[in-house]
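To the team - 4'-phosphopantetheine complex, inputs and output below.
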Amino acid sequence: MPKRNIIIYPGSFDPPTNGHLDLITRASELFDELVVAVLRHNSKKALFPVEERLEMIREASTHLPNVTVDSFDGLLVDYARRKNARFILRGIRAVSDYEYELQMALMNRKLDPHIETVFMLPAETYSYLSSKLVKEVLGLGGDVHDLVPPLVEARLKAKKPALS
Ligand code: PNS
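Output:
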């Protein structure tokens, strides 16, 4: 049987944005399987509990049959090995992302030289978009309608008191 190309898309996804969804869609067309993996123990203080983030990504990607959603703890390369994945997906929006992403990719390569990090560009329309800014804009009364899937917008609005 030919080898299936499995790619892990790790991140905080707090919350998932249209930029994340754009990348998930692009990568799902290139790889046999895509596993979106939410980091469980993150030093960043999260707005949404992990389970809710998993639910939101699942709901927003139900139309993509080769996409699954999971959470992980510990080293990303260990998780990738457990999933038989040879690839890690990260999005690069602008040059400012590059330094951090380069460091992570090279550290992951040092930890496991067989796992390759693949960088993809989201649509230009989302090149300024981040989960952090979405939360800030909403907290200050701005409109995030075009920035996140409708199901995420609804859940974000319910969390608004925690953001203001
Ligand atoms: O969306 P984020 O917060 O930029 O994602 C960061 C993430 C989850 C990809 C990164 O923190 C990670 O891979 N953490 C797992 C721990 C790990 O493997 N660290 C060593 C490699 S840098």
